[in-house]
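Question thread 4412

I'm putting together a teaching handout and wanted feedback from people who do this every day. The idea is simple: show students a protein as raw sequence, then show them the structure tokens that encode its fold, then repeat with a second protein so they can compare. Below is the first pair exactly as I plan to print it.
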Amino acid sequence: MRPSTIIFDLDGTLIDSEGDLRAAADWLLQQFGAAPLSRQEFRAMMGDGVAALVGRALVARKCRVESAADAVRGFLDYYEDHLTDTTRPYPGVHESLGNLCAQGLRLGLCTNKTMRITSAILERLGLATYFAGVVAGDSVPYRKPDPRVLSGMLATFGVSRESAVMVGDSEVDAATADATGVRFVLVTYGYHRGEVGKIPCIAALDEFTDLPSVLAEL
């Protein structure tokens, strides 16, 4: 079935946010006198939301904290002051999203980021107008890869899982799509943890600009 609705992940799919996120993690570790994370270490920690990211960073550096919630809050306070210092859309994202909208496709966004942070980034990078709906990490009481995140968005849009496609960069996104029964397109340049060739998908794209043609073939 030709898709009518495309649901996107954010980090590692539409935007390259690694630099600003890693800077926030390194700032937090510095407060405990700990060494910064290598890029490889940090990328392996991404994908499950800020609380998981902060927890993994603190464990990796054996930091003892009295309150995990305070550590997360400190990370977020720093990060919110530096959301788009280096974060940018990947090449071709604006062009391709505009192309899809012009074709009459409905676009949605599904991220484990908070809505406040997500909205700020989308506005600053000029991406907000493309999306008919956004589900963030604090929009509902569950997060990717829980299928209710995606199925709830499809219900809100009034579309079937057969008419939807999810586009993401990681094992978490693939698992979310699979659990929901939605076709999954992988972008290979993002923040996956394992071998990209082992992530199940109907198509794997090295460049975002290939997406409109791939969707047109479905």
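The second pair follows. I'd like the answer to focus on this one:
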Amino acid sequence: MDEVGRGAWAGPVVVGVVVMTAACGRLPSGTADSKLLTPRAREELEDDLVGWCAAWGIGEATCTEIDEHGLSRALHLAAHRALDALPARPDALIVDGPFDFVGAAADPPRGPAVPGGPPVVVPKIGADRTAGTVAAASILAKLSRDAQMRSHADRLPGYGFERNKGYGTRDHAAGIAACGLSAQHRRTWSFALPAPEAPEAP
């Protein structure tokens, strides 16, 4: 499992989950952390990844939910929505990063009953670069979120969402200065430009 959109100024946070079984075979060639791939490389991998894995799901929490509940709770909501999209809960999850955002928040959201109960969650820093299933989840989540931000760009011109995908960039900051905040902006967020070495990029 992996998330995208954590550090964005606008749009949802999206969680992808990919399930692998012994029958899946070799990971499609070129699979890597989504941040290391070009948009075209991610798009070219989509069909191969969907055909390779045993199951996959996407969940999201909106900018409004992020503002209302905070990022940690929003990630938890998105994670459970991704799990609810699966035909069955996996036995265990490798989650990218140091924190368990799947089981950490109290009162998980209600959803369809899924046999098997909650999975064992293993947080692992750098898992999107070392675990193939996590890399695959990051790619599918990134593709889903990027497509959504491009659709917002058509309705909300002036912010450069088609380029920056809602992340903090100079053109995005200029758009906010000129147009104010849109319905897709996280109103509790700080809109300071990130340092050049910031790990998450559009």
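Top answer:
Good format. For the second protein you could add a caption like this: Helices lie at 39-52, 63-69, 71-84, 127-130, 132-155, 161-164, 170-179. The chain has seven helices and five strands.
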